[in-house]
Amino acid sequence: MPPRHLADLDLAGRRAAVAGLGDKEFRAGQLSTHYFGRLIRDPQRMTDIPATARGRLAAELLPTLLTPVRQLTCDDGRTRKTLWRLHDGSLVESVLMGYPDRVTVCVSSQAGCGMACPFCATGQAGLTRNLSTAEIVDQVVWFAGLAAEGALPDCPDRLSRVVFMGMGEPLANYSRVTEAVRRLTEPAPGGLGLSARHVTISTVGLVPAIHRLAGEDLPVTLALSLHAPDDELRDELVPVNQRWKVAEVLDAAWSYAARTGRRVSIEYAMIKDVNDQPWRADLLGRLLAGRLAHVNLIPLNPTPGSRWDASPKPVEREFVRRLRAAGVAATVRDTRGREIDGACGQLAALADERAAGDASAQSRSDEPRRGPGANASRSERKAAQ
């Protein structure tokens, strides 16, 4: 795991850590105010802390967790996607999206993902590891600072929403994700001071974790990645459905809604000729009618080389019409970032492909030349050796 960071700790833990470094406990509040309240991470700007202590405290409690590898923008600068390299070389992504009335950041909770959904770039990459609490929080604080600097044209300068819809299955990294939510929602200097109602946690349907989340006293929005209303298809699209079927997953969602009073968002990627048939819209409508739920239809952002593609717009509109006719609220998500590999995991996958290509090219350039045998295949050279 990465080095300890103040965002891994609550205020009491930070005071204890500072005291353990031989400094006065109130310095923990000063560091926290800079990081969470003023969105400052450069110790040289923390002038209320003596210079003799500043560097040492920052090194121990504000280590660099995220290093930008690639940053792309579109939508006239209102959508910004960043590929980060973590301390161990793992790659994760997060996206900042600005609107006239709000600023949202989509964060990753894992490097890779172990859920193996076949239409998702991250799911096909597999799981590398869980992120720490601070690695999650630092994505948000970084972008909050960017928004505060006025980097998003014609958008508010304050970050207001966080969605756990980046790389990974949030509820598979349960303890660190819920701790991250507490840091994000606790008022400064304890945390960033966001409203829990403006935080969304997405899941493919880990039923025990959904029930556990309902008891956390964190009124966040639950987003259930359903993608199919029938078990036969969902077994293929969302392999965890082989463990918890549609009925059981929806029962857990309704239990969450009843416990928290929060409407559940049903995420449904529209995949051409796969899950977009009218009868599936009707079935989904029957499953959700009368429930505290809203369907968020997502035009699929296909990954390079994938056999999956987005549903045509007329098909999408008919799907919406049928859901609304059943009395179910449904909207189509505003797609952002298609031209900057906006789908979850695309940028990391491209970086991995480039790295593999570079390594392969380097390996070829390092191979000794053996006269006539230099152009032989690797297998032929190996046999000759």
Write up what this structure looks like.
The protein starts with 10 loop residues before the first helix and ends with a helix. It has a ten-stranded mixed β-sheet, with helices on both faces. It has a two-stranded antiparallel sheet with strand order 5-6. 43% of the residues are buried. 38% of the residues lie in helices and 17% in strands. It is built from 13 helices and twelve strands. It has 385 residues and is α/β, with parallel strands linked by helices.
What value does the Rg take, in angstroms?
23 Å
The major β-sheet equals: 10 strands, mixed
Helix residue percentage: 25-40%
| Shape annotation | elongated
Q: What is the distance, rounded to the nearest whole angstrom, between the alpha carbons of the first and last residues?
A: 42 Å
The overall pLDDT average reads 89
Strand order, main sheet: write it out. Answer: 1-2-3-4-7-8-9-10-11-12
Task: State which percent range the strand residues make up.
Answer: 15-25%
Task: Report the strand count.
Answer: 12
Low-confidence stretches: 359-385
